[in-house]
Amino acid sequence: HKRIGILTSGGDCAGLNAVIRAVTHRAVGTYGWDVMGIYRATQGLMSRPVQAIELDLDKVDSILTKGGTMLGTTNKGNPFAFPMPDGTFHDCSEDIIEGYRQLGLDALIGIGGDGSLAILRKIAQQGNLNFVAIPKTIDNDVGITERSIGFDTAVNIATEALDRLHFTAASHDRVMILEVMGRDAGHIAISAGIAGGADVILIPEIPYTLDNVCRKIQEHQAQGRNFSLVVVSEAVCTEQGETVTWSDRFGECRLGGIGQYLADRLSTCTGAETRVTVLGHTQRGGIPSPLDRLIASAFGVAAVDLIADEKYDHMVTWQQRQVVYVPIQEALGHYQAVDPQGTLVKTARGLQICLGD
Ligand code: F6P
């Protein structure tokens, strides 16, 4: 008999509740273990009393299709230098380790992106905790896994947005620019761009010139097709290589604005009317796609099986149609950018989509 904890950390995405449900089914339903759902990532473990809820099959009965995470999450504050109300920073790692012990856990499952999983692993090593990792991020750039939870839903949402923009672009003879998420990588942009029939796709992995993009739109105009669809990843820089950011009220630099930058320049060089849609967090919310539900369910069951085998410090990954267990250190060491020579880029070029280069 084991008692395990589960927490969701970093930005939310569709499919997190599906993992929580799968973990609970496997652990409680199959093995008869206890599962403690920890609130708001490591913050639940550093709070006193520890903030957690015992999960059972009833509590996870209707969450499969729900967006967000029933446990809450946060990507504010590194626990090794956690911002305190008085403006100082405190190393909370020992509080988190103590929280794990107070809950009487035998193992912890952490669902996160590369940043939060690396932090959780460091804490687990420091406290000698039994830790297993599940990758999630709409950006799909984490570790060795071919898929992370949330990516497919985000691509679906971005593709649907393009489908909608297509008709309004055509009706108004406009150049529609869709700015999609992806903090460092262009996976959402290239995938949704191809699936949604974009004319131009700009990703941070491929440098572009405005001249090339203008030429593509002007070619369309010369052929009598007076509208174009442009997809741009938020991580794309200006032509001069500057990141377009704005500061939020915490003084943090956020990505955003490259869509408007392009709109201004493209309307000048093509004479077309331009409009920008920034999809933002709609890509993270909502009902998970069937594929995300499947991956989340497979990852949840497999993570519990790892614990049953007492095979800790591993991450579940998706490789060649199945779950493969990989040591976390090894798994996180593979940052996944879009491969400029890969199939999707070749496909886009084969479809005469302008990639800006
Ligand atoms: O990493 C996921 C992600 O949604 C990125 O695509 C985006 O740049 C970032 O998180 C936004 O973070 P926040 O929710 O803090 O605004």
TrEMBL record:
It catalyses: beta-D-fructose 6-phosphate + ATP = beta-D-fructose 1,6-bisphosphate + ADP + H(+). Keywords: ATP-binding, Cytoplasm, Glycolysis, Kinase, Magnesium, Metal-binding, Nucleotide-binding, Transferase. Its main location: cytoplasm. It comes from the Bacteria. One of its GO terms (biological process) is fructose 1,6-bisphosphate metabolic process. The record marks 115 as: Important for substrate specificity. Mg(2+) binds at residue 114. Pfam families: PFK. Substrate binds at residues 137-139, 174, 181-183, 234, 275, 281-284. Its cofactor is Mg(2+). This is ATP-dependent 6-phosphofructokinase. The gene is pfkA.
